[in-house]
Amino acid sequence: MDELVRNATARLLDSGNVAALIAGVVALVLVLNRSTWLPLRNVVTIAHEGGHAVVALLSGRKLNGIRLHSDTSGLTVSTGRAHGPGMVFTLVAGYPAVSLLGLGGAWLVTSDRESWMLWGCIALLALMLLAVRNAYGVLSVVVTGGVLGAVSWLASPSWQALCAALLCWFLLIGGLRPIGELGRKRRRGRAGDSDADQLARLTGAPAGMWMLLWYLVGLVSLVVGGFWLLLMPQV
Question: Which Pfam families does the entry link to (predicted)?
Answer without folding.
Answer: Peptidase_M50B
